[in-house]
Amino acid sequence: MTTPTLQTLVTQQDLDALNNIVGEKGLLRPDRSSKSDFAPYESCVRYGSGEAAFVVRPANSKDTSGVLAYCYGRGITLVPQSGNSGLVGASTPDSSGTQGVLSFDRLTETSALQATDAEITTSEQIIFDEENRSVTVGAGVRLSDLNAFLEPKGYVFPIDLGADPRIGGMIATNTGGARFLRYGDVRQNTLGVKVVLADEAGTELDFMSGLRKDNTGIDWKHLFIGTTGVLGVVTEAVLNVVRLPQQSTAALLVPRDEAAVLKLLLEMEERCDTNLTAFEGMSAEAIRAAFDHVPSLRNPFPGGEIPDYVLLVELSRTWAKRESEQSLDELMEIVLAEIWEDEDAPLENAFIGRPEEMWALRHALSEGVKHAGKLVAFDVSFRRGDLMKFRAFMAKELPEKFPNVRICDFGHVGDGGLHFNLSIPQDDPRLNDEGFIPSLREWVVQIVVEKYNGSFSAEHAIGRSNQGFYDSYTPKKVKELAAQIKNVLSPGGLGDVKLG
């Protein structure tokens, strides 16, 4: 294997060579593009911004292979960027001006049909195989476009998110979402991938069989799911799809206290079984932030008084109501009545209403919290029984250690995931201290990992903002193995994350 040259500056010859691979539409170059053209690719939603040497936008696997092979030979680092909606700074270049952005903007082509009677959209070339209940898509297809294509056919890709990412980024970060409890994460819904490696040949690996069962060796696709794109660039995927729900109902539940939350979850799972689609937790501070930022939201609580903690519970079915069948609204009412009658009832109050209104509140939380002050956000996870214990610990200890920092958390109680958001007043003088936020982040993550054996990255994988936590909490042998795998698969500069 040829060792790549070490390069610090991208030359005009490099830009011309890349232009020959992807064409004029596929390359943004500093000598022919304005700073405003580059801006969307150089800044992330929350953390991470830098300066790109160029932005290359291949349309298919072949072009991606050419780009990766060329950059490998020249020692140019490429940062894969999907929808750029991540929250950990993994998708933007550093400040050196030597890294190129490999954008998925145009990466929507698929190389082969999976079925002779497949249906294809004219723009995104989404291939739908109803017999296999799957779709084949390019990595640059947006989640909203995929579901808009599937909806008339009665199907959906069941990863429910507040953002609108591209499929490649969802695979690279193994996103979960609000309905993980019912449908699982991206890993559980990925049947195949096509990957291009950052090596001398820009090697293309095809794991696109779409088989649901195949135990003939290592299931290679899993190496590229949830590893931030540093092991190889996913260019196409075969995804599992499910029937669209035909019935749904939702309720906002007010638990008796925080200790009752887990009991409510177990009760709902026992009584509703597979009808239970979501079990989401929302703190009063997060709800207030949503109401403040989105005044059109309806406040469903009596007198507008927001409870300390609220659960959004959803039931759904994939078939239309049958004449003699109990409706989901009736099932929800009966189940809640039964729980209320328990000797040690964990439920204080409940509000059954229109699911779209309740989900509008849930999806407004992120934007609301972002505007409540200086945001310090954590995407963490726990064993289900530890999530509320962590919240209780933080409610007591955080104000003592970091006064005047508000907890505006919400999350996926059903799977142990928590968006632990901290809001600091914008005029707080501590924000002038460069060490304040790092010390706050380090303390929170230490509690998550060391006290509760949780994960510092539940859904957003590894990025620049949590590289230090990976370095600190990943066992040495694991890092060594990860580095070896990286060197075998994609020895070239791919991503700005160090696995070892």
Characterize the structure shown:
- The chain has 500 residues and is an alpha+beta fold.
- Helix content is 32%, strand content 20%.
- It has helices spanning 12-22, 35-42, 61-74, 143-150, 167-173, 180-183, 260-272, 284-293, 328-340, 355-370, 384-401, 436-451, 467-473, 476-489; strands at 27-28, 54-56, 78-81, 100-103, 119-120, 127-129, 134-138, 155-156, 190-196, 204-207, 233-240, 242-243, 247-255, 276-283, 309-317, 347-353, 374-381, 406-407, 410-412, 417-424.
- The strands form four sheets. Strands 13, 14, 15, 16, 17, 18, 19 and 20 form an eight-stranded antiparallel β-sheet that branches. It has a six-stranded antiparallel β-sheet with strand order 5-6-7-11-9-10.
- Strand 5 and strand 6 (127-129) form a beta hairpin.
- It is globular.
In short:
The radius of gyration is 24 Å and the shape is globular. It has helices spanning 12-22, 35-42, 61-74, 143-150, 167-173, 180-183, 260-272, 284-293, 328-340, 355-370, 384-401, 436-451, 467-473, 476-489; strands spanning 27-28, 54-56, 78-81, 100-103, 119-120, 127-129, 134-138, 155-156, 190-196, 204-207, 233-240, 242-243, 247-255, 276-283, 309-317, 347-353, 374-381, 406-407, 410-412, 417-424. It has 14 helices and 20 strands.
